[in-house]
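Obj: model holo form, ligand = 2-oxoglutaric acid.
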Amino acid sequence: MIEHLPSTASIDALAEALDRDGVVVVDDLFGEDVLGPVREELAPVLAATVPAGGDFLGHSTKAIPGLMARSPSFAACIIDPVLLALADHVLLPSCRDYQLQIATAQEVWAGGRSQLPHRDETVYGPVLDYSPAAPQYVLGVIVAGSPFTADNGATRIAPGSHRWDPDRVAAPDELEPAAMDQGSAVVYFGRTIHHAGVNTTAGGRTAYIFGYSVGWLRQEEALLVECPPDYVATLPERAQQLIGYKAYSPIVGWAADRDPDLLTRPAPPGYTWPASMAATELTTA
Ligand SMILES: O=C(O)CCC(=O)C(=O)O
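Output (holo structure tokens):
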């Protein structure tokens, strides 16, 4: 069973469910104040998009890449304190800092098949250790932009699959729909098997899908290309950093002779890179 907890639950309680099941639904995380502007920003894009998507997505999905570039208001979701506390819990044991890995919207319509069940981390191929004891590299989040039901294509998830052998596939009866109200969010590990279900209703099922990953891994979506400095400068600072405008470790990701956080604002007088950093910052593990 996928556990549901209120957004007011303690981080310890949310983290316990997530660690145990590889998935937890945070009920009523976002209200209309957050999702209303996102819906407005995406409405013209969704209206201009035809359901398609091929074998992986299931042939009847409006897939909208570049969510961070198309919806500045969505920044409020990626910097939500509950989600960041869970990302701290899951990812910081394996990195100095984490980043946004991807952010897309997907609206599933009737007439297609289900998305293929998958683990988000496998986009990285066989190089990473995916064994049950390996650290989690990705934490996924799907925000219900419309109600999610078993009939309208709610994300289906296999609880506990984050601890399975990497070659094990989920039987249909091991995948459970994450039915939830609009504004709730399902949070799951990058090794938890999941997929979008089939929509047999007349309306669309809207999902805002994103993930955080350990900061030393390449982002799945080229967020720095999609979100140039002038645009990013309009977003909250933590969102800028998560998109990639912040060096990792402290030098990985530099650009134009500076820490990328200085691409969105003027560098202080006398700043030179990397001479402004203490040598120990560059040599200490
Ligand atoms: O839309 C969904 O419910 C799941 C989407 C997903 O897992 C993906 O696109 O990778």
